[in-house]
Amino acid sequence: MGLFDSLKNIANTVNGLGNKANNLTSKANNVGNKASNIASQFGAAAKKASLKSETFTFNKLPTSVEELMSLPEAAMSTPFMTAALTVAVLANYENNKEATFAMLNVLHGPSPISVSTKQFLLDRLGGKMYVVRSYFGGTSPANDYTPAEPFTVTVKDNPYSYDNEGYVKLFMHSSGADSDREIVLRRKGEQWMLWDEKFLLGDIRIPKSADPWA
After folding, report:
1. Which of 41, 110, 145, 207 has the fewest CB atoms within 10 Å of its CB?
2. Confidence grade of residue 42 (pLDDT, cut at 50, 70, 90)
């Protein structure tokens, strides 16, 4: 065998090794893609599995800190409890603003409500207490948002509720709105405190009795 033939054989061998390496790389990429797809599927399944809904029942809505603290939900050991309590507490606003502020301070924990928050509540709820009532079961614009008794509040999460560590964004249905409204809770130790309730208080459809076109 001549020198040229030997060099040719070496070149063929090198090319063969290169092709095998390329094949191995392709296989490795395929395995990686399959692993990514499996991880994505598991992630999607995990998010779907996290969807949860809890309904809380109140025979009587709290009108003072003492009454609030007597409720089992006052343990605030889950964000769902605190979210439901927020609606129950806000329903007292038209009866006694100061008592409502005191109860909200309990829910807010180390960050009591500010003067601007009090003004926000006045702007949103002055003459519009039906906004809060719309979160109770049995309400609708047609019955002027009159809750069924005992009072019930349903709270749910979604796949993105737990994206920020230490915070949970939950949702409640207003019978006067087309989409659920959010509320944000923040963990402090073993409890979940109210962090942001503003989005619960957006405008909704007015009660039938106040609608000149009804």
Report:
1. 110
2. very low
